[in-house]
């Protein structure tokens, strides 16, 4: 059976006054039903643009995306046309993505009205969705400004699930949430995933979250995946130096922790000035002459793990 | 022992709402000693923002300060005239905000903004520019002369936050308030910013009040930690004391919930059951009682006071234990 979502060499580029800027520079990934895939990377690495492109909210300039084996077509604006009933998106800003002039009830009923689903009563459906995400019926008449961050996030989850999607793309689902509410939102997503067999694509920079919830992960740097594979495998055996640095940098809530940090030098290069050769060589602690001139091909590691590096790490990460 | 730079005593702040006064801060006392980095942890709604706004006196118009004093270097900030307060902001007390994209002006160059913060100085334009260059170098921004001509949107997130830190420290404040300055950054940049703050703190000798809900960052950066819950300080002590031997049930729960502390991979993350109490109709007794699994009869009627020596905590269980 084909994967739920199969992305091959996807590219997103935007025109500039002179030339182009490649924001997503050829990424490939698969998501199976019931599987959680996490994309990790710093701000500006293209994570959100990738999510937007997959939902048809950003123009695609190359590559192919299949959903349930079907190639997604593009519209006149080069945007992908996924079946919006089957692919849902949770936006980054929980309160900002809810209309301030609509009550929670209206927000949750709107997808049904837009897609003209008459078989279900929108009002009843809004209440069902509220209870699904653990909010009481009295939330139905509230406006977004009357919600806390965690409650707004739950409404976002409920709205994304209104049409029973098969794939949920969550952009920073826990950003700005406190640890205990973060746990609630993630537990909720895990439960709904079990019950509905959802494929879940999580975009985040919170590594602690990835370690607990993701089956597969991909590390993004300047619009490319530098490493991807089974997340437990990557956490214990990172092969790309950027992955290793990212994992070693993760601050630990233990004041006595022994920290063996891999120091990265310099700044993240701009997308307009992509370095030659391996694009990470400007910050890599072990870059050699070869890295400056040629681009490292995709190399296979253990299992599904793949990475782009001439001199991968072999050390076991103490995590 | 030196006087603390900032000493807050018994501060209570409420907001007037349609339903009655919302008691956002109640009897908060804390001290920021000279040359120390003090962390404040707590979930949203715990009063962190109200606390900062009270210190710099930028509270919302419907806020009322009930009791208390905020002593900054021997002066009570709550009784200062608006003019005196205004001249203190940005010189005696500086702030670094969460999102550097919104705290920097998008239509002015970095150089212009760094000159503008020195508006109180009588130095010439050349001298101000030289100082700006020096500050940018100290926060580790390469090629600083060309950066001065750039606009905020052309810098990366980590660089923008370092520019914001450089601007905040330009006037050599005695107290720097940093409100979740690393939330928008990835792990490698987060660590860079923490080290940058640590190093500058040593060089300038200023005190830092660091607000975050990222427990790892607090553990790594701060000398002392203050834990807040629903408008009260529930525990305070050195970072090691609070993280290694948390006394208050809330602190214990909060630490348990941090996925970074859970060694084995789990799909079911721990949470704190229940929700924040209604601050308009305050419950009697201990503020955490409704969510506390260890509560006893006394917790229903009597509000526990913050007590203990260096490592303080507000919980009745500690009385019965000792």
Task: Please tell me about this protein's structure.
The complex is a heterodimer of chains A (319) and B (322). With 319 residues, chain A is of the alpha/beta class. Chain A folds into two domains: 5-214, P-loop containing nucleotide triphosphate hydrolases (Rossmann fold); 238-307, no CATH class. Chain A is built from nine helices and twelve strands. In chain A, the strands form two sheets. In chain A, strands 6-7-8-3-9-10-12-11 form an eight-stranded mixed beta sheet, sandwiched between helices. In chain A, a hairpin with a 4-residue loop joins strand 1 and strand 2 (20-31). In chain A, helix 2 (104-114) crosses helix 3 and helix 4 (149-160) packs parallel to helix 5 (179-196). The longest helix of chain A is centred in the middle third of the chain and has 18 residues, at 179-196. Chain A starts with a strand and ends in a 12-residue tail after the last strand. Chain B is an alpha/beta fold and 322 residues long. Chain B has one domain: 3-Layer(aba) Sandwich (Rossmann fold), CATH 3.40.50. Chain B has 13 helices and twelve strands. Chain B has helices spanning 48-55, 82-88, 100-103, 110-116, 125-138, 144-147, 157-169, 187-204, 215-221, 239-244, 249-257, 297-301, 317-321, and strands at residues 6-17, 20-32, 37-41, 63-65, 69-72, 75-76, 93-96, 175-179, 207-211, 224-229, 232-238, 312-313. In chain B, the strands form two sheets. A seven-stranded mixed beta sheet of chain B has the order 7-8-9-3-10-11-12, with helices on both faces. In chain B, a hairpin with a 2-residue loop joins strand 10 and strand 11 (232-238). In chain B, helix 5 packs across helix 7 and helix 7 (157-169) runs parallel beside helix 8. The two termini of chain B are 29 Å apart. Chains A and B meet through helix 5, helix 6 and helix 8 of A and helix 7, helix 8, helix 9, helix 10 and helix 11 of B.
Major sheet attributes of chain B: 7 strands, mixed
The global form of chain A is globular
User: In the CATH scheme, what's the topology name of the largest domain in chain A?
Assistant: Rossmann fold
Give the overall shape of chain B.
Answer: globular
Low-confidence stretches of chain B: none
- The string of secondary-structure elements of chain A, in order, is EEEHEEEHHHEHEHEEHHHEE
Mean pLDDT of chain A: 89
Oligomer: heterodimer
Strands across the major sheet of chain B, in which order?
A: 7-8-9-3-10-11-12
Number of β-strand runs of chain A? 12
Q: Helicity level of chain B, as a percent range?
A: 25-40%
Please tally the helical runs of chain B, counting DSSP H or I stretches of 4 or more residues: 13
Helix/strand-derived category of chain A reads: alpha/beta
| Cα radius of gyration of chain B in angstroms | 21 Å
Distance between the termini of chain B: 29 Å
CATH superfamily of chain B: P-loop containing nucleotide triphosphate hydrolases
CATH architecture of chain B: 3-Layer(aba) Sandwich
Give the DSSP E fraction of chain B (strand runs of 2 or more residues).
15-25%
